[in-house]
Amino acid sequence: MSHEAPHTSAGPATTASPQAAADREMPSGLRAASGDQPASAVPHASAHHPTPTGPLAAGPGTTPGNPRTSSATTASPARPASQPAAVTPLRFGYGTNGLADLRLDDALSLLADLGYDGVGLTLDHMHLDPLAPDLAARTRRVAQRLDALGLGVTVETGARYVLDPRRKHGPSLLDPDPEDRARRVDLLVRAVRVAADLGAHAVHCFSGIVPEGTDSGTAWKRLAATLTPVLDAAATAGVPLAVEPEPGHLLATLADFHHLRRALGDPEPLGLTLDIGHCQCLEPLPPADCVRAAAPWLRHVQIEDMRRGVHEHLPFGDGEIDFPPVLAALAATGYQGLTVVELPRHSHAGPHFAAHSLPFLRHAEQAAAATAPPSPVPALQQAAPPHGAPSTTPEGSSTP
Fold first, then answer.
1. Do 255 and 49 meet the contact criterion of CB atoms below 8 Å apart?
2. Do the beta carbons of residue 269 and residue 296 sit within 8 Å?
3. Whole-prediction pTM value?
4. Which residues does 361 contact at the CB level (< 8 Å), separation at least 6?
5. How crowded is residue 10: how many other Cβ atoms within 10 Å of its Cβ?
6. What is the rounded CA–CA span in Å between residue 385 and residue 334?
7. What is the pLDDT along the chain (400 residues), one digit of tens a residue?
Protein backbone atom coordinates (compact mmCIF):
# COMPACT_ATOMS: atom_id res chain seq x y z
CA MET A 1 0.00 0.00 0.00
CA SER A 2 1.80 3.06 -0.98
CA HIS A 3 1.20 6.73 -0.75
CA GLU A 4 3.56 9.30 -1.88
CA ALA A 5 4.87 12.64 -0.78
CA PRO A 6 6.88 14.97 -3.02
CA HIS A 7 9.73 12.46 -2.82
CA THR A 8 8.60 10.14 -5.60
CA SER A 9 11.65 8.37 -6.89
CA ALA A 10 14.20 7.86 -4.18
CA GLY A 11 13.91 6.71 -0.61
CA PRO A 12 16.16 7.60 2.29
CA ALA A 13 19.78 6.61 2.22
CA THR A 14 20.41 3.05 3.34
CA THR A 15 22.18 2.74 6.63
CA ALA A 16 25.51 1.03 6.40
CA SER A 17 25.11 -1.92 8.70
CA PRO A 18 21.75 -3.54 7.68
CA GLN A 19 22.27 -3.04 3.96
CA ALA A 20 25.90 -4.07 4.03
CA ALA A 21 25.02 -7.20 5.95
CA ALA A 22 22.30 -8.06 3.49
CA ASP A 23 24.62 -7.43 0.55
CA ARG A 24 27.22 -9.76 2.02
CA GLU A 25 24.59 -12.51 2.09
CA MET A 26 23.55 -11.93 -1.54
CA PRO A 27 24.54 -14.95 -3.63
CA SER A 28 26.65 -14.42 -6.72
CA GLY A 29 23.93 -14.89 -9.35
CA LEU A 30 20.12 -14.63 -9.57
CA ARG A 31 17.93 -17.68 -10.02
CA ALA A 32 16.12 -17.90 -13.34
CA ALA A 33 13.40 -20.46 -12.63
CA SER A 34 10.76 -20.16 -15.32
CA GLY A 35 7.32 -19.00 -14.26
CA ASP A 36 5.71 -20.62 -17.32
CA GLN A 37 3.47 -23.55 -16.54
CA PRO A 38 1.66 -26.04 -18.75
CA ALA A 39 -1.93 -25.18 -19.49
CA SER A 40 -3.08 -28.22 -17.55
CA ALA A 41 -1.74 -26.65 -14.36
CA VAL A 42 -4.08 -23.65 -14.63
CA PRO A 43 -7.20 -24.01 -12.45
CA HIS A 44 -10.43 -24.23 -14.40
CA ALA A 45 -12.86 -21.31 -14.25
CA SER A 46 -15.46 -21.82 -11.54
CA ALA A 47 -19.15 -21.08 -11.70
CA HIS A 48 -18.44 -17.72 -10.06
CA HIS A 49 -15.70 -16.65 -12.48
CA PRO A 50 -16.39 -15.85 -16.13
CA THR A 51 -14.04 -17.66 -18.51
CA PRO A 52 -11.81 -15.22 -20.45
CA THR A 53 -13.02 -14.82 -24.02
CA GLY A 54 -9.93 -13.19 -25.49
CA PRO A 55 -6.51 -11.78 -24.69
CA LEU A 56 -6.33 -9.10 -22.05
CA ALA A 57 -5.54 -5.64 -23.34
CA ALA A 58 -2.13 -4.23 -22.67
CA GLY A 59 -0.71 -0.74 -22.80
CA PRO A 60 1.28 1.85 -20.94
CA GLY A 61 0.41 2.22 -17.28
CA THR A 62 -0.41 5.37 -15.38
CA THR A 63 -0.80 6.17 -11.72
CA PRO A 64 -3.34 8.93 -11.22
CA GLY A 65 -4.32 10.10 -7.79
CA ASN A 66 -3.11 12.50 -5.16
CA PRO A 67 -0.87 15.21 -6.65
CA ARG A 68 1.75 14.39 -4.05
CA THR A 69 2.15 10.92 -5.55
CA SER A 70 2.07 11.56 -9.28
CA SER A 71 5.31 11.76 -11.22
CA ALA A 72 5.10 14.07 -14.22
CA THR A 73 7.14 12.81 -17.16
CA THR A 74 8.45 14.96 -19.95
CA ALA A 75 9.57 13.93 -23.39
CA SER A 76 13.28 13.20 -23.62
CA PRO A 77 15.44 14.30 -26.53
CA ALA A 78 16.01 11.64 -29.15
CA ARG A 79 18.95 9.40 -28.32
CA PRO A 80 21.38 7.74 -30.70
CA ALA A 81 20.32 4.20 -31.53
CA SER A 82 23.24 2.85 -29.52
CA GLN A 83 22.17 4.64 -26.32
CA PRO A 84 19.42 2.85 -24.37
CA ALA A 85 16.54 4.91 -23.03
CA ALA A 86 16.70 5.61 -19.32
CA VAL A 87 14.33 3.54 -17.21
CA THR A 88 12.96 5.05 -14.03
CA PRO A 89 13.89 2.84 -11.09
CA LEU A 90 11.06 0.95 -9.47
CA ARG A 91 10.01 2.01 -5.99
CA PHE A 92 9.90 -0.81 -3.47
CA GLY A 93 7.99 -1.01 -0.21
CA TYR A 94 7.29 -3.61 2.47
CA GLY A 95 3.90 -4.47 3.93
CA THR A 96 3.18 -3.85 7.59
CA ASN A 97 1.12 -7.06 7.63
CA GLY A 98 4.53 -8.76 7.56
CA LEU A 99 5.74 -6.64 10.50
CA ALA A 100 2.75 -7.18 12.80
CA ASP A 101 4.94 -7.75 15.86
CA LEU A 102 6.45 -4.27 15.59
CA ARG A 103 4.96 -0.97 16.68
CA LEU A 104 4.07 1.09 13.63
CA ASP A 105 6.72 3.74 14.28
CA ASP A 106 9.37 1.04 14.75
CA ALA A 107 8.29 -0.63 11.50
CA LEU A 108 8.48 2.65 9.58
CA SER A 109 11.92 3.44 11.01
CA LEU A 110 13.15 -0.03 10.10
CA LEU A 111 12.02 0.28 6.50
CA ALA A 112 13.56 3.74 6.12
CA ASP A 113 16.84 2.51 7.58
CA LEU A 114 16.89 -0.44 5.17
CA GLY A 115 16.43 1.88 2.19
CA TYR A 116 12.84 1.12 1.18
CA ASP A 117 10.96 3.77 -0.78
CA GLY A 118 7.69 3.23 1.03
CA VAL A 119 5.32 1.06 3.00
CA GLY A 120 2.17 -0.90 2.41
CA LEU A 121 0.17 0.16 5.46
CA THR A 122 -2.51 -2.35 6.45
CA LEU A 123 -5.03 -0.65 8.73
CA ASP A 124 -5.29 -3.01 11.71
CA HIS A 125 -5.75 -2.95 15.45
CA MET A 126 -1.99 -2.59 16.00
CA HIS A 127 -1.25 -0.25 13.07
CA LEU A 128 -3.36 2.91 12.77
CA ASP A 129 -6.55 1.19 13.98
CA PRO A 130 -9.29 2.52 11.67
CA LEU A 131 -12.01 1.97 14.29
CA ALA A 132 -10.31 3.52 17.34
CA PRO A 133 -11.00 7.10 18.49
CA ASP A 134 -9.14 10.13 17.11
CA LEU A 135 -8.40 8.54 13.74
CA ALA A 136 -7.84 11.88 12.02
CA ALA A 137 -5.32 13.06 14.62
CA ARG A 138 -3.48 9.74 14.60
CA THR A 139 -3.39 9.79 10.82
CA ARG A 140 -1.82 13.27 10.84
CA ARG A 141 0.94 12.02 13.12
CA VAL A 142 1.64 9.07 10.83
CA ALA A 143 1.68 11.39 7.80
CA GLN A 144 4.25 13.58 9.53
CA ARG A 145 6.37 10.56 10.36
CA LEU A 146 6.21 9.27 6.79
CA ASP A 147 7.27 12.65 5.46
CA ALA A 148 10.14 12.86 7.96
CA LEU A 149 11.39 9.42 6.90
CA GLY A 150 10.87 10.03 3.19
CA LEU A 151 8.52 7.07 2.80
CA GLY A 152 5.64 6.75 0.37
CA VAL A 153 2.57 4.74 1.32
CA THR A 154 -0.31 2.68 -0.01
CA VAL A 155 -3.25 1.98 2.29
CA GLU A 156 -4.22 -1.70 2.41
CA THR A 157 -7.38 -3.16 3.91
CA GLY A 158 -6.59 -6.86 4.21
CA ALA A 159 -6.46 -7.10 8.01
CA ARG A 160 -7.80 -10.50 8.97
CA TYR A 161 -9.90 -9.72 12.04
CA VAL A 162 -10.21 -5.94 12.25
CA LEU A 163 -14.01 -6.06 11.83
CA ASP A 164 -14.89 -9.45 13.30
CA PRO A 165 -12.72 -11.32 15.83
CA ARG A 166 -14.22 -14.66 14.76
CA ARG A 167 -14.35 -14.46 10.96
CA LYS A 168 -11.22 -14.01 8.88
CA HIS A 169 -11.74 -11.06 6.52
CA GLY A 170 -15.35 -10.85 7.63
CA PRO A 171 -17.76 -9.34 7.04
CA SER A 172 -17.13 -8.91 3.33
CA LEU A 173 -18.71 -6.91 0.54
CA LEU A 174 -20.67 -10.05 -0.40
CA ASP A 175 -22.27 -10.93 2.95
CA PRO A 176 -26.01 -11.74 2.84
CA ASP A 177 -26.72 -9.33 5.71
CA PRO A 178 -26.93 -5.73 4.38
CA GLU A 179 -25.76 -4.36 7.73
CA ASP A 180 -22.66 -6.54 7.60
CA ARG A 181 -21.91 -5.40 4.06
CA ALA A 182 -22.30 -1.81 5.26
CA ARG A 183 -19.63 -2.38 7.91
CA ARG A 184 -17.12 -3.36 5.23
CA VAL A 185 -18.14 -0.38 3.10
CA ASP A 186 -17.62 1.91 6.10
CA LEU A 187 -14.13 0.47 6.63
CA LEU A 188 -13.21 1.11 3.00
CA VAL A 189 -14.55 4.67 3.06
CA ARG A 190 -12.50 5.29 6.21
CA ALA A 191 -9.47 3.86 4.40
CA VAL A 192 -10.01 6.27 1.51
CA ARG A 193 -10.07 9.22 3.93
CA VAL A 194 -6.92 7.96 5.66
CA ALA A 195 -5.23 7.53 2.27
CA ALA A 196 -6.10 11.08 1.26
CA ASP A 197 -4.71 12.45 4.52
CA LEU A 198 -1.51 10.41 4.14
CA GLY A 199 -1.01 11.34 0.49
CA ALA A 200 -1.29 7.66 -0.50
CA HIS A 201 -1.22 6.75 -4.17
CA ALA A 202 -4.00 4.12 -3.82
CA VAL A 203 -6.33 2.23 -1.50
CA HIS A 204 -6.30 -1.55 -1.85
CA CYS A 205 -9.33 -3.81 -1.38
CA PHE A 206 -10.72 -7.20 -2.44
CA SER A 207 -14.10 -8.78 -3.05
CA GLY A 208 -14.27 -11.54 -0.45
CA ILE A 209 -15.36 -15.13 -0.92
CA VAL A 210 -18.83 -16.06 -2.14
CA PRO A 211 -20.99 -16.91 0.90
CA GLU A 212 -22.50 -20.35 1.06
CA GLY A 213 -25.91 -20.39 -0.63
CA THR A 214 -25.23 -17.27 -2.71
CA ASP A 215 -25.32 -17.64 -6.49
CA SER A 216 -22.78 -16.01 -8.78
CA GLY A 217 -25.13 -13.42 -10.24
CA THR A 218 -26.23 -12.23 -6.82
CA ALA A 219 -22.62 -12.03 -5.62
CA TRP A 220 -21.55 -9.85 -8.55
CA LYS A 221 -24.54 -7.54 -8.03
CA ARG A 222 -23.66 -7.16 -4.34
CA LEU A 223 -20.05 -6.39 -5.20
CA ALA A 224 -21.01 -3.69 -7.70
CA ALA A 225 -23.52 -2.14 -5.31
CA THR A 226 -21.20 -2.10 -2.29
CA LEU A 227 -18.23 -0.68 -4.21
CA THR A 228 -20.24 2.20 -5.65
CA PRO A 229 -20.15 4.42 -2.53
CA VAL A 230 -16.48 3.57 -2.01
CA LEU A 231 -15.69 4.64 -5.58
CA ASP A 232 -17.65 7.85 -5.00
CA ALA A 233 -15.51 8.56 -1.93
CA ALA A 234 -12.35 7.72 -3.88
CA ALA A 235 -13.35 10.10 -6.68
CA THR A 236 -13.95 12.89 -4.18
CA ALA A 237 -10.63 12.24 -2.44
CA GLY A 238 -8.66 11.85 -5.67
CA VAL A 239 -7.30 8.47 -4.58
CA PRO A 240 -7.69 5.39 -6.82
CA LEU A 241 -9.40 2.31 -5.42
CA ALA A 242 -7.21 -0.64 -6.45
CA VAL A 243 -9.11 -3.94 -6.35
CA GLU A 244 -7.00 -7.07 -5.91
CA PRO A 245 -7.79 -10.40 -7.58
CA GLU A 246 -7.45 -12.86 -4.71
CA PRO A 247 -7.36 -16.67 -5.07
CA GLY A 248 -10.51 -18.19 -3.63
CA HIS A 249 -12.50 -14.95 -3.85
CA LEU A 250 -15.32 -13.99 -6.20
CA LEU A 251 -12.89 -11.64 -7.97
CA ALA A 252 -9.93 -13.99 -8.33
CA THR A 253 -8.35 -13.23 -11.71
CA LEU A 254 -7.59 -10.42 -14.12
CA ALA A 255 -10.56 -11.56 -16.19
CA ASP A 256 -12.76 -11.12 -13.12
CA PHE A 257 -11.44 -7.58 -12.66
CA HIS A 258 -12.49 -6.71 -16.20
CA HIS A 259 -15.90 -8.26 -15.57
CA LEU A 260 -16.34 -5.92 -12.60
CA ARG A 261 -14.96 -2.94 -14.51
CA ARG A 262 -17.47 -3.40 -17.32
CA ALA A 263 -20.35 -4.00 -14.90
CA LEU A 264 -19.59 -0.68 -13.17
CA GLY A 265 -19.22 1.24 -16.44
CA ASP A 266 -15.43 1.60 -16.20
CA PRO A 267 -15.40 4.32 -13.50
CA GLU A 268 -12.27 6.47 -13.47
CA PRO A 269 -11.30 5.82 -9.80
CA LEU A 270 -11.37 2.02 -10.27
CA GLY A 271 -7.93 0.50 -10.65
CA LEU A 272 -6.13 -2.77 -10.10
CA THR A 273 -3.87 -4.18 -7.42
CA LEU A 274 -1.69 -6.80 -9.11
CA ASP A 275 -0.12 -9.43 -6.85
CA ILE A 276 2.78 -11.02 -8.77
CA GLY A 277 2.60 -14.22 -6.73
CA HIS A 278 -1.09 -14.60 -7.50
CA CYS A 279 -0.25 -14.40 -11.21
CA GLN A 280 2.11 -17.34 -10.79
CA CYS A 281 -0.47 -19.20 -8.70
CA LEU A 282 -3.46 -19.20 -11.05
CA GLU A 283 -3.39 -16.87 -14.06
CA PRO A 284 -3.17 -18.43 -17.54
CA LEU A 285 -0.41 -15.98 -18.51
CA PRO A 286 3.12 -15.92 -17.01
CA PRO A 287 3.63 -13.12 -14.46
CA ALA A 288 5.55 -10.82 -16.84
CA ASP A 289 2.75 -11.09 -19.39
CA CYS A 290 0.19 -10.40 -16.65
CA VAL A 291 2.03 -7.14 -15.87
CA ARG A 292 1.87 -6.07 -19.49
CA ALA A 293 -1.80 -7.01 -19.78
CA ALA A 294 -2.69 -5.16 -16.57
CA ALA A 295 -0.67 -2.02 -17.32
CA PRO A 296 -3.50 0.40 -18.24
CA TRP A 297 -5.29 -0.24 -14.94
CA LEU A 298 -2.30 -0.77 -12.65
CA ARG A 299 -2.52 1.29 -9.46
CA HIS A 300 -0.76 -0.90 -6.88
CA VAL A 301 1.61 -3.89 -6.98
CA GLN A 302 2.33 -6.57 -4.39
CA ILE A 303 5.24 -8.96 -4.82
CA GLU A 304 6.52 -12.19 -3.31
CA ASP A 305 7.50 -15.63 -4.54
CA MET A 306 4.91 -18.37 -5.11
CA ARG A 307 4.39 -21.77 -6.73
CA ARG A 308 1.91 -22.75 -9.40
CA GLY A 309 -1.43 -23.80 -7.95
CA VAL A 310 -0.48 -23.11 -4.31
CA HIS A 311 -1.61 -19.87 -2.67
CA GLU A 312 1.25 -19.46 -0.22
CA HIS A 313 3.26 -16.22 -0.02
CA LEU A 314 6.94 -17.22 0.00
CA PRO A 315 10.21 -15.36 0.54
CA PHE A 316 12.13 -14.61 -2.65
CA GLY A 317 13.92 -17.71 -3.92
CA ASP A 318 11.55 -20.20 -2.28
CA GLY A 319 9.08 -20.30 -5.17
CA GLU A 320 9.14 -20.53 -8.95
CA ILE A 321 9.00 -16.94 -10.23
CA ASP A 322 11.70 -15.56 -12.54
CA PHE A 323 11.82 -11.97 -11.28
CA PRO A 324 14.02 -10.04 -13.75
CA PRO A 325 11.49 -10.36 -16.61
CA VAL A 326 8.68 -9.37 -14.25
CA LEU A 327 10.50 -6.25 -13.05
CA ALA A 328 11.51 -5.37 -16.60
CA ALA A 329 7.88 -5.57 -17.69
CA LEU A 330 6.81 -3.47 -14.72
CA ALA A 331 9.42 -0.80 -15.40
CA ALA A 332 8.38 -0.68 -19.05
CA THR A 333 4.81 0.25 -18.10
CA GLY A 334 5.98 3.50 -16.50
CA TYR A 335 4.31 2.48 -13.22
CA GLN A 336 5.43 4.84 -10.44
CA GLY A 337 3.52 3.54 -7.45
CA LEU A 338 5.05 1.27 -4.85
CA THR A 339 5.83 -2.39 -5.43
CA VAL A 340 5.25 -3.82 -1.96
CA VAL A 341 6.68 -7.06 -0.55
CA GLU A 342 3.76 -9.10 0.80
CA LEU A 343 4.76 -11.71 3.42
CA PRO A 344 1.86 -11.77 5.91
CA ARG A 345 2.81 -15.17 7.34
CA HIS A 346 6.36 -14.11 8.19
CA SER A 347 5.93 -11.48 10.91
CA HIS A 348 7.77 -13.77 13.38
CA ALA A 349 10.93 -12.85 11.43
CA GLY A 350 9.72 -9.68 9.74
CA PRO A 351 12.89 -7.60 10.18
CA HIS A 352 14.98 -10.44 8.77
CA PHE A 353 12.87 -10.82 5.63
CA ALA A 354 12.59 -7.06 5.18
CA ALA A 355 16.39 -6.81 5.29
CA HIS A 356 16.82 -9.59 2.71
CA SER A 357 14.02 -8.73 0.31
CA LEU A 358 15.19 -5.31 -0.87
CA PRO A 359 18.70 -6.41 -1.97
CA PHE A 360 17.12 -9.31 -3.86
CA LEU A 361 14.72 -6.99 -5.70
CA ARG A 362 17.40 -4.42 -6.51
CA HIS A 363 19.69 -7.15 -7.83
CA ALA A 364 16.86 -8.55 -9.97
CA GLU A 365 16.09 -5.03 -11.20
CA GLN A 366 19.72 -4.56 -12.23
CA ALA A 367 19.68 -7.90 -14.04
CA ALA A 368 16.52 -6.84 -15.86
CA ALA A 369 18.09 -3.56 -16.97
CA ALA A 370 21.35 -5.06 -18.18
CA THR A 371 21.87 -4.90 -21.93
CA ALA A 372 23.53 -8.32 -21.98
CA PRO A 373 21.43 -11.38 -21.11
CA PRO A 374 21.27 -11.51 -17.31
CA SER A 375 23.16 -14.20 -15.48
CA PRO A 376 21.01 -16.57 -13.43
CA VAL A 377 19.47 -14.75 -10.48
CA PRO A 378 20.34 -16.46 -7.21
CA ALA A 379 17.87 -17.45 -4.56
CA LEU A 380 18.53 -15.68 -1.29
CA GLN A 381 19.64 -17.79 1.60
CA GLN A 382 16.53 -17.37 3.72
CA ALA A 383 17.64 -18.85 7.03
CA ALA A 384 15.46 -17.01 9.52
CA PRO A 385 15.57 -16.82 13.30
CA PRO A 386 13.98 -19.99 14.72
CA HIS A 387 10.26 -19.74 15.32
CA GLY A 388 8.88 -22.68 13.38
CA ALA A 389 7.93 -22.72 9.74
CA PRO A 390 5.21 -20.41 8.42
CA SER A 391 1.86 -22.06 7.94
CA THR A 392 1.32 -23.68 4.56
CA THR A 393 -2.43 -23.27 4.83
CA PRO A 394 -3.78 -21.53 1.71
CA GLU A 395 -3.87 -17.82 2.38
CA GLY A 396 -7.18 -16.82 0.80
CA SER A 397 -9.96 -15.76 3.14
CA SER A 398 -11.78 -19.00 2.45
CA THR A 399 -9.52 -20.73 4.94
CA PRO A 400 -10.07 -20.71 8.71
1. yes
2. no
3. 0.76
4. 90, 92, 303, 316, 323, 327, 339, 341
5. 11
6. 37
7. 433 333 333 333 333 343 333 333 333 334 333 333 333 333 433 444 444 333 333 333 333 333 333 333 333 333 334 344 556 799 999 999 999 999 999 999 999 999 999 999 999 999 999 999 999 999 999 999 999 999 999 999 999 999 899 999 999 999 999 999 999 999 999 999 999 999 999 999 999 999 999 999 999 999 999 999 999 999 999 999 999 999 999 999 999 999 999 999 999 999 999 999 999 999 999 999 999 999 999 999 999 999 999 999 999 999 999 999 999 999 999 999 999 999 999 999 999 999 999 999 999 999 998 843 443 444 444 444 443 333 334 454 333 3
